[in-house]
Xanthine dehydrogenase molybdenum-binding subunit
Amino acid sequence: MAYESLQLDGPVGKSLVRVSGREKVTGSATFTAEWPIENLLHCVAVPATVAHGTIDSIDTSEAASMPGVRLIITPENVPKIKQVQSGSETNFKTSISSKLYPASENEIFFAGQYVAAVVAESFESARDAALAVKVNYQIKPHTTDIDDAPADERPDSVMGAPAVISIGDADAALDKAAIKVDHQYPLIGNHHNPIEPHATIAHWSTQNNKPFLTVYDASQSLPIAQASLVKVFGLDPKQVRVICKYVGGAFGSKGLMWPQALVACFASKMTGQPVKCVVTRRQMYGGTGHRTPIRQRVAIGCDESGKIQSVIHEGYASTAIKDTYTEAFTMATRMMLQTQNLRLSQKHCRLNTQIPTFMRAPAETPGMFALESAVDEMAVKLNMDPIEFRRINEPEKDIHQDKPFSSRLLMECYDRGAKRFNWSKRNKQPRQTHDGDWLIGHGVASATYPYLTFPTKVELTWKSDGTVNIKCCTHEIGTGIRTAAGQLLADMLGIPASRVSMEIGDTDLPPGGVTGGSATTASVGGAIRLALEKLKKRLIELAPEGSPIAGVEAENIRLRNGKLIAGENAESAMLAVEDLLSAAMKDRVSAIGDFKGPKDSPTSNHSFGATFVEVAVDETLGLVRVRRMLGCYACGTILNARTGRSQFIGGLIFGVGHALQEATHWDHRLGRITNDNLAEYHVPVNADIPDLDVMWIDTPDFNASPIGAKGIGEIGITGVAAAIANAVYNATGKRIRSLPITPEKVMA
């Protein structure tokens, strides 16, 4: 269904400063571990040091005798709770990360699994006592290397689609194709490393003679966390409240509740006091999810004119022994290129690791690296500009869904970006451009991300002082939702954004969806639009007989500048909302909008973009430096130019790390991560990042979105790694098909 267009010509699109900025830079923003709770105890987990085995014994005698220790949780005394499926296996119907509950199992399936937890009067006491807990294991064989595990298991589905998609006969068409590209693109695993570690404070109390659980959790999914706690502890929703006002970075890692959340709940229940459990940086590597390693093959066959005859994208990713997460790395390939013959196929293998999880653009980031690298390789074989190769193979519709696109401005992104980047002046032959000892190369790749929404409710309240309040249990993970939502509502009402406030981060508020999948702005915005229609009707109902708007149909009345206006011209009948509320002796009027999103959209809905990169390569040292990068995006209406630009730039920086630095390394003999710290897990720093240029095509998409806006939080990363790899090829003539692109690969 297409939505009626909105005329947004006020605050929307302006570079307003985010409303949370002052709180963050002054340190007054309260993050999860900072809530001032009285009588607070501290909990530190004891992680398994083996990758597979059974617990022979747990000796807690020394730890229990240490000063300040109040409780040690082990499988012998842990509360028994209801088993539920993990969120990855239920498409976010729960937010429990794993069926392996903390300190509840005698069998170990990965290093880092919580085998016990210590509760003490201070963090230091809990930490020291946790180190004193002695666990003896019977060690069993393990597998942590994706190349050593059999990939013989087919997932039930891949993001709601079959694990195998076949259109035409891709294998036969590839065999007949005049020109072929057929390669493997292996990817190593990654970890999220948000600034704020995972943290939970749990407090069991009594309200109305019933147990009541209050949880402060660093979360991207508060309403689902609440529902999950209700299930596992057998409570009523009115007995559980979950709060998170600010998240210090997430990138997918806080979409689910990791074991520290449940262990804090256990500890509070057993001690009768509030308990805080903050995960250490090292424990974040073993216990809170990661981007899975992937082995993928992409094959493209073309005729001599460059028209694609066949596309094959297949491979496998890892998941855990006891839990299943499916990384949908073939998903974008369904609709990126025009072909009559397409085959997509995914399997997974099981490793002795914590369950993988969502990480910024979880399907597109790995999948688009392989696809867009192969596209560039084909353009080179054809001696064709890679942009022109994409142009002649641009699809007219989504061939998988057999639907038209709601909007697809990919080639416009390429054209505008190429002009600004001076793409036409590059030397398309490798090894031809130098700057001293450095080889200079240029690369380009497509970016895409699907338009997603989640069911969301919003309550709007118009107060007699002329201010309007938004209430929604959504999350501030750094994207600026309070700012963007306020701008949107202010524009729809024709009032200054300063008159709009927003309350978030508390399950006592109307439930929002997961803050992930680049879905929050459109979901909250859709609910705001519905709530505003209801609010207008309620205000009209308050109008007394004989008022300027009496007798006028609701659809012919507008809410602008604090007034109900009947008519379109300067002499239109008007009634100030403040006067209306005063006459009705009310100090406020409220309405709730319930946005469920499109059930079956007639269009295929995605954002698109193009990423341009210039690199310098020192072959002697194997160094790769990004010198210039530009992203041009088509994501519908951009509500706030400042925060929008920040999101795009953040994605580009994340992509540089993914392409050149980030890698989780294992000692597969022990089944343990060797670089589980920020000194050895390399991420970009300021010296690695040049000035970044972003631009966008600000064209609303009301075919997909009720506010014309689509997601921007994840698309920025999706084309970066391929664009960098393609630029490295242009510089050196060496095609590097695995990430990260490290010095030894450049020098090989």
About this structure: The chain is about 25% helix and 25% strand. The first strand starts at residue 41 and ends at 47. The domain at 32-141+193-287 is CATH 3.90.1170.50 (Aldehyde Oxidoreductase; domain 3). The mean pLDDT is 96.
